[in-house]
Design a protein that fits this description.
TIM Barrel; 492 residues; 35% helix; Lyase, Ornithine Decarboxylase, Chain A, domain 1; alpha/beta
Length: 492
């Protein structure tokens, strides 16, 4: 009996499922023909399917608004997109079209916002949440936003020393506008080994006194928000709800002495699908957040705060994919079969080796072939440039194929839209000087038809050499001289 790859998937998971289906023997991604893109652009390439960003934002905004209405919650909901997850203009602008606010993490994020303002993509009344440690440059640019009229800019204090540095800048630049502030509460992180208190934020046992002795006496600042960030994300477990209750207890204590406080920011996002068996009840989790928040506020007899969330990975993660060709298979021993792909996995999906992140891995073609267990290898010379079942609690199976086949095996890593380009540095210098692959954007027109555009071609050698400080003009002259010498030799 022939055990095909399709049989393996069909017996193991609910399939087809959202985003993945088979048409004419080839995998489709949200109905998009990957075969068409491969034939048109070749491999490797990075793909961003922009409509998925819109769908993700709409779903969560609707679920929060429905939960607010159903429970009688009196605060509003504000969706913030974390630019750090994917800074590319088409991605950020797609999110902005859905009415999101923005969360910043560094000085250059402010330059990005000013550029969006210049291009007409944001207005000055957009809500901005400034997180992260505040360098002098970061604070200077936040002050600049206030000077030019951004009225909803909230600076979240990551350290108590940031307050005095803000005061110094306000005085130096004679800023009369009040600075809106938030406070980030340090939480107990949950690593694999043991609990520890996060280096980020201010210790919760110091926040109330900090407000009373410093913030309450300063007429130039106004505390609006309490922020707490759970690095492992919003999950229905004892750890998350324990930290949630600590945050709400602190919020209630602050609210009773600070009338201006009116917002709570739940940092740490929703999970995204990293395997075909993924199961997460977004609707129920949102209901529980709103319900618990309302219950605490009613018990403490305080107003319901506005809810802010900062969704980066959730917003863009499921829109991304990276497509490779298998260029060779190597049977190193009886147990180790390697499929070598046409780029570096370390460079294109660095989360896979740096933090053992899992992604959905599927073949594009040959679903009717028998399957086998394999390791996926990149073409760099580093021993870490691979993807297999090690420490991932899953084995990698892909279709068998023959090197004599007219069509190679194509494979894709899916839901790679967050962080990969930021961590690897798209277009910069990569390990072994392996170039960043072609970057393709796919969108829908008003009639619902797909269209693809090349955002950037595969990185060129001249670009990399120039970054490294080489004189590419001299290299060009040498190449032309060599061509001329070759041509002359042929003539003789």
């Amino acid at each position: 009996m022939k055990n095909t790859y399709f049989d393996l998937i069909d017996q193991s998971y609910y399939f087809p499922q959202e985003g993945f289906d088979i048409k004419n023997g080839y995998l489709t991604f949200y109905g998009l023909s990957l075969q068409y893109l491969i034939e048109k652009h070749g491999t490797p390439f990075r793909l961003m399917y922009l409509p998925r960003i819109e769908d993700q934002i709409k779903r969560v905004k609707n679920l929060f608004n429905r939960a607010i209405k159903k429970t009688g919650y009196e605060g509003s909901y504000n969706y913030c997109y974390c630019t750090k997850c994917n800074h590319f203009a088409p991605v950020v602008k797609t999110a902005l079209k859905q009415g999101v606010n923005l969360e910043t993490s560094s000085s250059y994020d402010i330059d990005l916002i000013l550029q969006l303002l210049a291009e007409g993509d944001v207005e000055k009344d957009i809500k901005l949440v400034h997180n992260g440690y505040k360098t002098d440059s970061y604070l200077d640019k936040i002050i600049q936003l206030h000077e030019i009229g951004f009225t909803n800019s909230i600076t979240v204090l990551d350290s108590m020393t940031e307050l005095q540095r803000i005061r110094d800048r306000m005085k130096k630049r004679k800023l009369t506008t009040k600075i809106k502030l938030g406070i980030r509460m340090a939480i107990n992180e949950e690593p694999q080994s043991a609990y520890y208190t996060s280096r980020l934020g201010i210790s919760p046992d110091k926040i109330l006194d900090f407000y009373k002795t410093e913030l309450a006496k300063d007429k130039n600042v106004e505390l609006l928000m309490l922020h707490f960030f759970i690095d492992s994300g919003i999950k229905d477990n004892l750890y998350y709800w324990g930290e949630f209750q600590k945050g709400m207890k602190l919020y209630a204590e602050l609210k009773k002495v600070c009338k201006s406080l009116n917002a709570i920011n739940f940092g740490g996002g929703f999970p995204i699908r990293n395997n075909l068996g993924f199961d997460y009840d977004y609707e129920d989790m949102i209901k529980q957040i709103v319900k618990n928040l309302k219950s605490v506020c009613d018990e403490e007899d305080i107003d319901h705060p506005d809810i802010y969330t900062e969704f980066g990975k959730y917003t863009v993660g499921e829109s991304g994919a990276i497509i490779f060709s298998v260029i060779e298979q190597k049977q190193q021993n009886d147990a180790e079969l390697w499929y070598m792909v046409d780029n570096s996995l370390m460079n294109t999906i660095p989360d896979a080796w740096s933090i053992l992140e899992k992604f959905i891995l599927l073949p594009i073609n040959k679903w009717d072939n028998e399957y086998t267990r394999v390791n996926i290898g990149g073409i760099s010379c580093d021993h870490s440039d691979y993807y297999n079942s090690e420490d991932m609690n899953q084995e990698v199976h892909l279709p068998r194929y023959s090197s004599k086949d007219k069509e190679p095996l194509y494979i894709g890593f899916f839901h790679t839209g967050a962080y990969q380009d930021s961590i690897s540095g798209y277009g910069g210098i990569k390990h072994c000087l392996i170039p960043s692959p072609k970057y393709i954007l796919v969108d829908r027109d008003e009639k619902g038809n797909y269209y693809d555009t090349v955002y950037s071609e595969e990185q060129k050698v001249d670009h990399m050499l120039k970054i490294l400080g080489y004189d590419t003009e001299k290299e060009r002259i040498i190449q032309e001289s060599q061509k001329a010498a070759t041509k002359k030799a042929r003539v003789k």
